[in-house]
Predict the 3D structure of the following.
Amino acid sequence: MKLMVLLLTFMSYTLFHATRKPPSVVKSVLKGGKELSGGKKSAGWAPFNGDRGDVLLGNVDSAFLLTYAVGMFFAGRIADAANLRVFLSIGMMGTGIFTVLVGMAYFWNIHSYSYFIIMQVMAGLFQSTGWPSVVAVMGNWFTGKRGLIMGIWNAHTSTGNILGAVVAAAVLSPPWGWGWSFVLPGWMMIMGAVLVYGFLIPAPEHEEDHDRIQMVHLRSAARLDTPDYREYDDAKGNIHKKPSEKQKPVGIGMALRIPGVLAYAFCLFFCKLVAYTFLYWLPYYINQESIGGRHLSPTESAQVSVIFDIGGVVGGIMAGHLSDQFQARGLVSAIFLYASILMLYMYKSFGTISLTVNIVLMAISGAFVNGPYALITTAVSADLGTHESVHGSARALATVTAIIDGMGSLGACVGPSLTGYLAEYSWEAVFLMLYLSAFTAAVLLTGLVFSDIRAIHERSKTSQQNGHVSSMQELGEMETRTLLGSDTD
């Protein structure tokens, strides 16, 4: 059953990210103005093909991300009190519908700026249900050393980005059109929602009840008022315990008092600012730069950009494994963040030498940028959500996750929005913003880094002491055996 939960939640959030990727893929097509064969320029799509096109595209991204960030704080609270299977399914269905409606602007010849803003606002609202739900489900099923398993599981983020980029890029050019880049991922999300609703079991205590539900539905009408039936069929097939047996959700105030929540929340603000700037602008940046003496097409740029996410998969797994190995999530996150500054500088400075150099530096940058982002949003959130200060209550999982990722999502809103303005002046200004953000994120973890170092030192000291005691015991046993042997002689 754990494997089923792992696969369903992985698929779910893969699709959430696949539906976020199309805006970055179609940016250069909507903006237009690129040289075509015969000396002509691409027309773009009004209202984004004007002089302020970059700003308008950035504002559309911000509309989605701001709604997503604000919705996250409420979604976490609701998720802790709701049936996670139903809540997640509704979020997926709504996300799919509004993603399709963005793409329908191409087929319906819609050029209203307000239309794009409204569709993205609604998509952001439904997207906000996803992360608190899947992390809460995973936290319910997987305990102990979460770093490695969560690092592997969090590959859904990069997998979704890759899937979204590949699908959107495949239908970007004629005879298709940019509308299909939204319609296809949207329908994939809708189908995924059906699977989650049909098969996801949100917690181990629901597993036995899930097996009994068929028997419950076969009870005669004469027994509908029995206590057992009310207990197991209250939610029309969504099994719950009696109210007296439920854990109460943890309030936001109590969640904020959990040690480490605020530090990681503000750190994630800057981590996601960097990560989402790449998510929404990397294909456009590649398309704008001359790499190895030539400009890549929008389709080629989208395809090359997936390398960043492939590196992100490796980085997430590495960060999770190292944090488990050393039991130092803050220290590992900070090391990755400081390293990301160097790699981002190298990517900006040397990435235009050739396509090969660009790809290598992009992959390494993706690993260091996404490593701490993946670690904080998964293992750290799950650890803090079941912290001893809330008596290990799993009912705090979604709330803590929503606080941390909600703050991170505000940063995700700021990064792409500022990029729309800064890119009009120079990409150097954009990368300076990324350097400063990564540095600030690392500095915010300083207190946790020292705590981790002290903990590692204490564990090492204790281990040495235990080893010394064990050696003394063995020596004593040897001396005893020697004396006994002498007496026998």
